[in-house]
Backbone:
């Protein structure tokens, strides 16, 4: 059978997810994306390379939309490919606040829905829909913040730590599945711009992020996406459940 890849990527309307989707489309993969917005540039990349993209629009911070999106994703997943790849990439750093300011339960709930619940529900749909005899791989885009306490990021750190530990359970339950919770390192995206707009009071680490930008030390999403996809396609992928792309060339 000809080697074919079907990839599902959340949060591909911009940033790292967009770069991952573009790279996969350029390699001939069929790509299904999920985000609130869509990006016409993905259609153009698909046209240029004779590949196919389907952009599903969903607000993954809302429980009912997550469930509906998972159903749409399952229905859209073509049969018969040799490899199925799910990249749980959509995420938010908000709400940014010290612990004594985290009163807005609704915004905390939205963060946990997007960063954690959507990852779990899309994974469940993927496990049920992608044929088990195919090469199935799942990448959960985590963060160093899930492993290193960062002042002002109580919610973000907790969601990424939850994603990391969930990945361990997923692997324990599915011995044949290649899965990793992968920190991408800092990436020059809208999320970094948003972080630089935080207040010093809410985010005492602000200066470190301003410096990274000033010194031109933020890698492009394209460079990070290429590194991630090279690793995901390799034999090494999944050996380390909690991994960091900066550990690879
Ligand atoms: N950038 C970094 O330095 C960095 C570092 C470590 C980890 N990460 C992780 O890398 C991943 C990608 O981050 P990024 O930097 O590319 O962020 P970004 O530029 O802010 O892009 C986030 C993506 O998530 C989608 N998204 C946000 N809210 C959503 C919602 N409610 N429903 C559905 N989709 C939603 C956005 O699409 P819509 O707005 O169209 O919905 C967008 O496509 C995240 O999980 C982040 O935590 C990033």
Residues:
């Amino acid at each position: 059978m000809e080697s074919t890849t079907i990839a599902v990527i959340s949060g591909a309307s911009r940033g790292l997810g967009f770069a991952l989707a573009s790279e996969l489309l350029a390699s001939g993969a069929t790509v299904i994306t999920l985000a609130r917005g869509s990006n016409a540039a993905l259609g153009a990349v698909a046209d240029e390379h004779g590949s196919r993209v389907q952009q599903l629009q969903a607000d993954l911070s809302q429980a009912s939309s997550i469930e509906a999106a998972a159903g749409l994703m399952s229905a859209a997943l073509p049969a018969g490919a040799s490899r199925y790849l799910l990249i749980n990439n959509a995420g938010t750093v908000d709400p940014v606040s010290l612990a004594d300011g985290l009163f807005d339960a609704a915004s905390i709930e939205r963060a946990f829905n997007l960063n954690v619940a959507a990852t779990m529900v899309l994974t469940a749909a993927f496990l049920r829909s992608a044929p088990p005899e195919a090469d199935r791989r799942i990448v959960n885009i985590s963060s160093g913040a899930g492993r290193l306490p960062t002042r002002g990021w109580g919610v973000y750190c907790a969601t990424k730590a939850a994603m990391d530990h969930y990945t361990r359970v997923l692997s324990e339950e599915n011995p044949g599945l290649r899965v990793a919770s992968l920190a991408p390192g800092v990436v020059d995206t809208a999320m970094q711009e948003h972080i630089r707009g935080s207040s010093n009071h809410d985010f005492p680490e602000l200066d470190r992020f301003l410096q990274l930008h000033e010194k031109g030390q933020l890698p492009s999403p394209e460079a990070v996406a290429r590194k991630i996809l090279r690793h995901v396609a390799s034999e090494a992928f999944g050996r380390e459940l909690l991994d960091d792309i900066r550990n690879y060339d």
Summary: The two ends are 31 Å apart (CA to CA). The first strand starts at residue 5 and ends at 10.
